[in-house]
Amino acid sequence: MSEVEFAPPPTPDLESYGPNVAYNRERCYQLAQGFFKDAVRRARERHERQKELKLRLENPELLSRREQIWSHSGKLEAKYLRFLRTKEELSNYTVVKTIGKGYFGEVKLVRKRQDGRVYALKRLFKSEMISKEQLPRVRAERDALAESDSEWVVKLFTTFQDNASLYMLMEFLPGGDLMSMLIKYQIFSEDITRFYTAEIIMAIEAIHNLGYIHRDIKPDNILLDRGGHIKLADFGLSTGFRRDHEKSYYQTLLQRPAPPSGRPQNNRHSVNIDEISLTVSNRAQINEWRRSRRLVAYSSVGTPDYIAPELFSTNGYSFEIDWWSLGTIIYECLVGWPPFAAETFHDTYRKIINWPHTLLFPDDIQLSYNAVHLIRSMINAPDARLGRNGAAEIKNHPFFAGVDFTGLRRIRAPFEPPLTSDVDTSAFPVDDLPQEEGFGDGGGSGPGREGVAVGAEDPEMSLPFLGYTFKRFEKSYTA
C-alpha cells in the first residue's frame, strides 16, 4: 500500500491577523510555559523529597519505625496535593489592620481562618495595573518572589485573584522597614551600618544569583523580621534579563526645563534641602524631609534618590545598578540623608547625573577612611563600580574586615523590635493610614469579597493575568 502524500502546511502570516492575535499568541505561549515549568518543578521537588526520605530510612536506628514514617510522609504528601487544589479567596482570611497603602494597592495584616496564622496580604488593583501599563511590574514581582527561597528575601506563600484585584500572601515582617529606623534613630554608627549593609549585600546577592536585577533598592524596601534581621521586598521594578533601557520616565524628566525660581515643580519637602544646609545641627529638618519622602514613596512617581545614573541613559545597565543604590543607603545611614537629596525631583536627577561634582561629605560629620572609600567605590561609574564583578569584591572591602557573612543571622541584631503579640504593628506608620473594616471597597466582585454579590468575570480583567496563581510548598507539610 503506497504512502499517502499530504500537501505542506501553509506558512502562517501573523502580520495579517493584527496586533490582538499576536498579543494573545504570546500570552498563550507564556501561560503554557509557566504551567509546564511549575508542573516540572513540583515533580522534581516531590522526587527529591522521596529520595531524601529513602536515605533517611536507611538509618538502622529507624528500622522499627520505617512503616510509620513512610505512612506519615504519604499522608503529608496527600495533604499538600489537596492544598494545591484548594482555591484561595478573601473569605479564607480576616483583616487585622491596614499596614501599607500605595498608588496601585495596599497591604493588610490578615489572619487565616483555618489555622490562625498571620500574613501580610498585598492587594493590587487590576484596573490601575492595566490603565497605567504596570503589567510587567506585576509579573516581575510575582516571578522573582516565586523563584526565590532565600532567607534574605520576603517569602511569598501564594498568589490569587478575583475580578478586580490581584493578591500576594506573604510573610509578615513585624520590624517595619529601614526608613522607619532612620526616622527613629536619625543616624547610625559605623558598626550598626556595617551590620545592616552586610545583610543587604547578602539579600542583593541572592537576587542576582537568580538572574534578577532589583532596580529599586531603598530603605523603604528593606524590611526587618521579628529578630531585627533584614529581608528584601518589593520587586515590582525588577527585571530578569540584561536590556537596553528604552526612553523612560526618568529620561523624559531630565529633558524638561528646570522649574522657575521660587516655583519648584514636584515639591516633595516642607523644607529646603541642598548640600549646604544639610548639617548635624538640623536633624529635625532632616526627619521632616524623611516623612515627606515616605509619602512620595507611596505615590505613582516613587523616589529617585537611590537610582543609578545609568537609568537616565540609553546605554543599558546591568546588576551593578543595585550596588550604586546600596552605596547611597550607606551614605544615608552614616550622614543622615541621601547624597543627592534636593528640593525637586528635577534637581535630584541633575545631581545624580553630575555625581562626580555633587557627591559631597559634610565637614561636621567624621567618617573613617574605609567608610568614605567604600561609598565612593560604590557611587561610581559602572565600569569602575565596586560590585561590578559580583558581591565578593564588596565583601572583601576593608570596611567589612572580620565580618562573617555566612553567620550574620546567628548574630543578635542591633535593634530587636519590642513586640507584644504576633499582630504587633507598632513599627508601621498605621496611625497615618485609614483603617476600614474588612477588605473595604475596590476589592472586586470575586467570591471572597464580603457584602458584595459575585459578578460575572470580565475577560479584560482576567486574560492579562493568566498564569498569575502560585502556591509555595511549605516545610510544615513534611515536618
UniProtKB/TrEMBL annotation:
Gene3D superfamilies tied to this protein: Phosphorylase Kinase, domain 1, Transferase(Phosphotransferase) domain 1
GO CC, one annotated term: cytoplasm
Domain Protein kinase, first and last residues per copy: 93-400
Residue span, AGC-kinase C-terminal domain: 401-479
Binding site residues for ATP: K122
Root EC class: transferase
GO biological process: actomyosin structure organization
Location of region: Disordered: 420-455
Gene Ontology MF annotations: ATP binding; protein serine/threonine kinase activity
Transmembrane recorded as keyword: no
SMART domains documented for this protein: S_TK_X, S_TKc
Biased composition (Gly residues): 440-449
InterPro entries associated with the record: AGC-kinase_C, Kinase-like_dom_sf, Prot_kinase_dom, Protein_kinase_ATP_BS, Rho-assoc_Ser/Thr_Kinase, Ser/Thr_kinase_AS
Entry keywords, A to Z: ATP-binding, Kinase, Nucleotide-binding, Phosphoprotein, Serine/threonine-protein kinase, Transferase
EC number(s) recorded for this UniProt protein: 2.7.11.1
Catalysed reactions, as listed in the record: L-seryl-[protein] + ATP = O-phospho-L-seryl-[protein] + ADP + H(+); L-threonyl-[protein] + ATP = O-phospho-L-threonyl-[protein] + ADP + H(+)
Record-stated family: Belongs to the protein kinase superfamily. STE Ser/Thr protein kinase family. COT1 subfamily.
Protein name per UniProt: non-specific serine/threonine protein kinase
Organism: Lasiosphaeris hirsuta
